[in-house]
Design goal:
Elements (H helix, E strand, L loop, with lengths): L1 E4 L5 E4 L7 E3 L3 E2 L1 H4 L1 E6 L13 H20 L3 E11 L8 E11 L3 E11 L6 E13 L11 E2 L4 H27 L1
Parallel strand pairs: 4-10
Antiparallel strand pairs: 1-2, 2-3, 5-7, 6-9, 7-8, 8-9
The structure holds coenzyme A.
Coenzyme A binds next to strand 6 and strand 9.
Length: 185
């Protein structure tokens, strides 16, 4: 195996007879370094036949916010691999404001799990309500479109540590379910 540094000072390892396998990014990051908040307003083109927000519009905002977090963490292009546990808790009326908060909960080798919370705000009364929660898995890609190693994640606050531990348990549970199903085949 040989390695070289690119113009950003990133070490690239080249494995003989295989495509570029690992782009090793230095150090680690905390969830707060990459967390984002996005705001939208529910417009007529975002609504369903009940005059409340169309679920697909919310899913699109969630996917975009979460992708930005994942890309900020790894500094690479990312793709959505999985959307997990999306719960629509309450509707959002046309004209209401929407706050989308996303932060990184957990990282594997090449994957990143982002937690997203959506809150609606009645702009006339200021009343706020949690409306949607979701967890999404993204995979970082190298220049050839193959999964690539991501930096480590260091949760710092009590909330960040709780989210990290919960995500770790969910990843393990999924692995257990997958291997059980494979054994049954
Ligand atoms: C996501 C994708 C890159 C994974 O490629 P792959 O060759 O299967 O890669 P691997 O099997 O090595 O998995 C890579 C990582 O993704 C994770 N992963 C892959 N599929 C997953 C899924 N369905 N759910 C959760 N994690 C998943 C693996 O656990 C692994 O994580 P780790 O490296 O942290 O342990 C590939 O399936 C793909 O390109 N999918 C299409 C993505 C897309 O078009 N998204 C919509 C538009 S952005």
């Amino acid at each position: 195996m040989r390695s070289l540094k690119d113009s950003d000072g990133i070490t690239i390892c080249i494995v003989p007879n295989r495509k570029i396998k690992e782009v090793m990014k230095p150090a680690t990051k905390t969830p707060s370094e990459t967390a984002i908040e996005m705001r939208e307003m529910v417009m007529p083109n975002n609504t369903n036949t009940h005059g409340t927000v169309f679920g697909g519009a919310v899913m699109s905002w969630i996917d975009i916010a979460a992708a930005m977090v994942a890309a900020r963490h790894c500094g690479r292009p990312v793709v959505t691999a999985h959307i997990d546990d999306i719960d629509f808790i309450a509707p959002i009326k046309m004209g209401y404001h929407v706050l989308i908060q996303a932060s990184l909960n957990y990282v594997g080798k090449t994957s990143m799990i982002v937690g997203v919370k959506v809150t609606s705000e009645n702009p006339f009364t200021g009343e706020v309500r949690t409306t949607t929660k979701a967890y999404l898995t993204f995979v970082a890609l190298d220049d050839l479109g193959s999964p690539v190693v991501v930096p480590g994640l260091v949760p710092e606050t009590e909330d960040e540590i709780r989210r990290f531990e919960n995500a770790k348990k969910r990843v393990q549970m999924k692995k257990d379910v997958r291997s059980t199903l494979q054994r049954r085949k």
